[in-house]
Predict the structure.
Amino acid sequence: MSRIKDSSVVEVIVNIMERNDSWEIKGEAARALGRIGSVEALDPILDIVTTQEEEIIRQKQHIMFRFIESLGNLGDSEITGLLTNWMYYLHDDKYSWPFVKNSPIKALGKIGDESSIMDLLSIYVRHLDLPEIEGKSIAVEEALVSIGEKGRDTYLLYSSEKFFKESYDQS
């Protein structure tokens, strides 16, 4: 997708996202900003996502994943830590829907920051003895491969049955 260079377009969409009361419109505006790919959109999206109370986030899961998805599309490695925290939080939250749980994993893969490799593997290993959580393992695999050669090689090494058995038996 081509990038829109005109910052006035980004400004208009940010204004729509910030001033509209409809969460559906906010979510679609965030998604559009992520697709445009302008780093100018990073702070406004983060402001909305990080200032909401937990109850609103839980009630608006079907919208919040759009915000997380848009952050991954922006590709800014400065938010790797925030996305990693969300990945762990959503993974452990029994009320989060599966596609919401996968959104920070996919965003980390899009950003491609090698510092997220071990955290992605940690989530992968935590699912060994659990029933498949609708694509969680696949999302982690795809994210690791997206990170590049180091992510792909790390995944290949750690995904071997012998490694997982040894690691899992020790925990």
The radius of gyration is 17 Å. The chain is about 75% helix and 0% strand. The mean pLDDT is 81. Residues 23-36 form the longest helix (14 residues).
